[in-house]
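Lab notebook, bench 4. We co-purified these components, and the gel suggests they stay together. Before we commit to crystallization screens, I want a quick structural picture of the whole thing.
Request: model the full complex, all chains together.
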Amino acid sequence: MPSPRFPIPQGTLDMLILQILSLEPAHGYGIAQRLEQISQSVVQVNQGSLYPALHRLEQKGWLEAEWKQSETGREAKFYSLTRSGRKQLVVEKDSWARLSGAVRLIFDEGNRS
Amino acid sequence: MKQLLNWFRRRSLESGLDRELRYHVDRRVSDLMLSGVPESEARRQATLEVGNLTRVKEEVRDVWLTRWLRDFVYDLRFSARSFLRSPSFTATTVLSLALGIGATTAIYSLVDQVVLHALPVRQPERLVLIDWKGDQVANGFGSWNLMSYPICRDLQLQDRIFEGVICRAATTVNLSTGGEHKPAAAEIVSGSYFSVLGVGPAIGRVLGNDDDGTPGASPVVVLAYDFWKTQLAGAPDVVGRKVLVNQHPMTVIGVAASAFRGIDVGQIPSLWIPAAMSAQAIPGFQDLLDRRTRWMQVLGRLRPDVTLAHAQVGLQPWFKAMLDEDTRRAGFPRITAERRQRFLTSRIVLTPAPQGHSSLRRRLSQPLWVLLALTAVLLGLACLNVAGLFLARGSAREREISTRLALGASRGRIGRQLLADSLLLALAGGSLGLALAPPAMRVLIAFLPRDVAANALKSAVDSRLLLFAFLVSVAAGVLSGLAPALQAGRRSLISSLRERGGAALGGVRLRKIIVTAQIAFSLILVVGAVLFVRTLTGLLAKGPGFDTSSLVSFGLDPRRNGYSPSQASQLIRRVHDAIHTSASTQTSALARFPLLTGGSWNDPMTIQTDQRLTTDRDVNLNAVSPGFFATLGIRVVAGRDFDEHDSRPGVEAGRRSAIVNEAFVKRYLGGRNPLGVRICEGSGPDAKPNIEVIGVVADFSYRGLREESEQAYFAISQGDEAGGNFYVKVRGTPELAFQSIRTIIHNADPALPIANFRTLDEQVSRSLNTERMLATLSSAFGTLALLLSLVGLYGVMSFVVTQRTREIGIRMALGATGGSAIWLVLRDAIAMILAGTAIALPCVAALGRLLESQLFGVKPTDPVTIAAATLLLTSATLGAALIPAYRASTVNPTDVLRFD
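Here is the predicted assembly.
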């Protein structure tokens, strides 16, 4: 029996979206696929909740969107990172690194004793 | 902001989202089918994965526009649609709110301009007015808060407290920029004025400390921007031009920045003259460096690290030392020990002065606050009116609301809808009110003396006013919508659905409360109106105490045109002789100071009878020519008028004579024969009472109509009349007399300007402009308020009668008379009127204190006034209630019973 998938932790979805888009522009479906692949089906993303997040990031000015032809020939809405989005990604990565570093420290402390 | 924009492009956003989601699902389906899943199964799985699409969409919409805002916008749209469906209701409510908001905005605009607005200078909040509390042992001229020029110089050295100190005095000069000589408002200022205020030039340069050195050595002026634009057509080569100030040539060195209009909102200067040139700017003035002449207002800019309290404390050591030094200076007058004590215990007082210094503010701020309070009451009344109309509409919408409730709308949601209704109306009313405000402001400004107000006050709407109107509108909207919204939340759902006609009794109770409040508000306004009208009519009926008909006056000051005192005196003499013998003149006379302008020459006096006594307050003084009292028709009640003998040139000191008024006799000579008593100006030990009282005249108004004061008159001696005010009793119409007087003066010197040329009737009316403004506006408000409450009472009573038609019909069928039906309805109305009156009367008493200073001859709690106002209101409102009551009495029982 495969281990159950984790629901994505609160607040990390935005960071993941920014990270995926920092590689190349993508449409919503593409981002969902990429999330599935990268997380190797460990993290479960409710595909519906992707869209409010995308629109929120767009509203904040971190993403910009454009209707373009997709690989199947149909028009799809492609999102890409803006300059301030890039900055935001750096900020979020940094704070994530600090948080996970802190958590590891606490765990290490526990192991030593 | 971005969110609000989204509202306007929500259609394209929606279709975009639809496409986006459809693409997602379709891609998933085709991907699954590629991996071998049959189509129906693929579609099912894709739909499952993406989740509840409606909810996703709703979440995205929340991102576009926050939920409550979105709902609110929908509410507003719904309200707008329902208002368009009932145009008469909408028009009535919008109009009443527009009247209230427009009036409040207009008056607030004046309050803002006159009282609240900070000067357009650098950091106005750090400006303070420096004033002397106590006895300065000095002679003064000018308005208020006066000190000497040397004190300003002393203060400039207190640089641990002040960044800088300025002094200024307003005056009028004869200015010629090429052709004609015209009187122009000027500000005499210290060299520090512009740099301390932080005002720069538009062109050229402004005055600096170098321009305020040796007296008479720096003949330069700075022009005001408006003057430069309007009088000199903005000539670019104005810098370096010579102008004539009182015939003294001075050089224009620059034009001040466009926004700056001096520090007195009521006296906009056309030019600034350095204090060093004050002898040229004020003919005959030689006291610039005299410490005992107070004539300038002194303002300072506090250092950033100094608070007002610290500054005040920090100044006292310097001030005490200065007082001490002053008493030992040569030329310090000999004064009584008591007065010396008053001098030495004087204090220096600082008050914040971000708005500058203004005598207009001093005069108008109280009446303006009164008016603002009255308009606030009027606005409250308009809100009540709208609330009443809402309730009436609410009972018509009863079923709609009950249905919505039954379908699951929360009461809060319904209440919010009703609030959106009233906010929308209020904003519409506010916009209309804002459109009405500028004409209303023009009307208000027209009440004020033209020369003061016209160039000082604007009727334009600026951003501050816009914000004020917006806030007032929102407040009005909330106020007028609150009652109906609460009401909607309280109704029992089942009972209202069950009722067919819907006898909304709770609504009626609330409407009755509203009408009661309306009656109370109206009574307050009506009482105010009656008080102000009685003040005005009282003052008009009292009059100035002399006969103003066919009386005209004007002023001449030849010294401002460069005449020496003796030349000026000859000219005045010549003009007076010509006017005296003119065919259009009955009689004429001269006075040194004009009447009914608010100001006077005043000083305490010393009186010598069998003992020596000094007056306990200032006596108003004037110097007049023989025939002055006869020209004005003032009765000489004892002794005689001045004659040519009294005004002979160079009369030896012992032979000078004075005339006092009855009030003077009553206060200081009670019972004694005033004739032969000797008096003199001044109260010091060096005052020599050597002027004989030769006559007593009836009391009349000197400074203004309200004042009843002690007055003393000296004879103008020939050769001493270097300037003066002419009083001419004319034959025929004043217009003809104006013509011939103009000709006479033009013949004497074509360059001589005539000041304040007008009839005494006009002068009286000008001196009453504040009273007239208050009386007219409060009457208008009172009438409006009365009408509003009549409509309100009529509306609610008709509604009650309609609702109770059945009940009344049954009563009549059972034998009740028409009279008892009338009573049934009237009883309610009387209860409301009585309750309203009971609420209003204590409010009137409380508000009375605000009004007191504006009234004359009537107390704010005057019983006759209040009784009259109450009677007026009661009879009018009863009249309004009688119409529906009469309708109740004509109810035909058979019709009513059959109708059911």
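The mean pLDDT of chain A is 83. Worth comparing against the SEC data before the next meeting. The first strand of chain A starts at residue 6 and ends at 7.
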